[in-house]
Amino acid sequence: MDKLKSLVKKIVFTFIKPPVVQIYNTNSQAGEDKIVEFLFKSKGIQAIRYIDIGANDPIGHNNTYLFYSSNSSGVLIEPDTTFISRLEAARPRDTVINAAVSTGSDTEAELYVFADSALNTLSKADAELRQASGLNKILQIKKVPLLTIAQVIDQYMEKCLPDLVSLDVEGVDLEILRSFPFEKYPVPVWIVETCAYSEDHIKPKNTEIIDLMLSRDYFVYADTYINTIFVHQNWFKA
Q1: For residues 15 and 183, what is the distance between their CA atoms, to the nearest angstrom?
Q2: Which UniProt keywords apply (predicted)?
Q3: Per-residue pLDDT tens digits for 98-113
């Protein structure tokens, strides 16, 4: 029977080509943007407002470029001056801020800069850990201005709640989320890096971030291991 089925398929597909599976392009590290795009479209939302914290490259491994390319816009926050001109040139509709996001009242911090910009961090402990491995070296320590996410919303979002916040700040994500006023700003969707730094593919999962978001009325919509997509329950059910 299996041989007969195989023969029939061979004959049929000689004259009728099998359907082509379309591979959808993604700019995110692990397809997070396509997951979130599906979520918004399922809610009938075509254009969104976003805040991208730790924007880095304007296109590659970027969680918000897909939305920008579909006529959405928002705010890009990047502490490394190296990327500012590239962000402004590639995404002129977005507001680009050369700063880092703080967890309190401090107005300035030290940014530890590596050759691989994806490793840049405000955490001295994380920076020293990466350098101690012998695989990475701190190239520079820069002073950068600080803003809170609440300040960004109030000053740059015209007091409108962003639909999406992408958070990737290498080592201080949990501290930032702990200080964020969720009740005042119930952002519908967050993309947050929830795996810790590692020299190989086995990256410890930061379950504290997940527990915190669950306690703030969010649920895990999807997880790509690198990032977790959190959705506010009330927004999702509305």
Answers
A1: 60
A2: Methyltransferase, Transferase
A3: 999 988 778 888 888 8
